[in-house]
Design a protein that fits this description.
The protein is mainly alpha-helical. The chain has 3 domains: 51-92; 94-164, no CATH class; 185-262, no CATH class. Helices cover 60% and strands 11% of the residues. The protein has helices at 2-8, 21-47, 50-68, 70-92, 96-124, 166-181, 201-215, 227-240, 242-248; strands at residues 132-140, 143-150, 190-193, 220-223, 256-257, 260-261. The strands form 3 sheets. It has a two-stranded antiparallel sheet with strand order 1-2. The radius of gyration is 53 Å and the shape is rod-shaped.
Amino acid sequence: ARAALHAHEAVHPAQPVAPQAETIASLTDYAGRLDDEAAQYEADAVQFDRAQASKEKLGLEARKWITEQAVAVRAEVDRLKKSKAYDAWKALTSSRAISTKAAEVTQAVVTEAYVGRFNQELRALGAHRIQVELIKTRARNGVVLHQVRLKGAQDARTQPQGVLSEGERRIISLAAFLADVCEKPGAAPFVFDDPISSLDHEFEWAVACRLVALAQTRQVIVLTHRLSLYGILEDLARKVSDDWKSKHYRAMRIESYGGVAG
């Protein structure tokens, strides 16, 4: 093999090498340009704000997504507009505005007059010494509600039923009832079943006087088992006038019912 190589080896005289100064200069210049570019890249990398670039990238991606979803976005905007309109219409059906306006009107027109009549009835029934007051509590579904409360109670949660006697509570209820119904149009009959069964004699006389006064403007029916009230009503009817008593007063006694006396 060695012999074969030597056999094919060409033997020529050595040629002089051409000058490489120009090539070396060209390569050196190219290397310098590469170094300059590398330095510029390094400087650009130092000045590059990655967070800002990421933010801008997200913004561009969002704009691209919005553009792609334009139809769906418009449909959602229309849906929200309709929903807002429906909510506005729904609010118009709420009774809150009615309750608010009813409370304002009632406070100005009804409540003050009602409270005045209530206090007047308390005085007429001889219960002016009972320290209670009638106040508006709230309005619900356009209806204004009132409540009887104790005057000067240190604890606002103290209820009249926890302080007042049964007779006092009954006289207050009677005053509230008369204040409510006496000013209504029409003269419907009143029926009282033992209106003073638990009251003392002072309230008994005052209540009887009030019932006789009512009887002069409407029919009043009183059911009672108290002989004292029976006698007081008859005396008061006579005091109005004998003529009025004969025309408008009628006393009936039920001594037994169904064969049972009592």
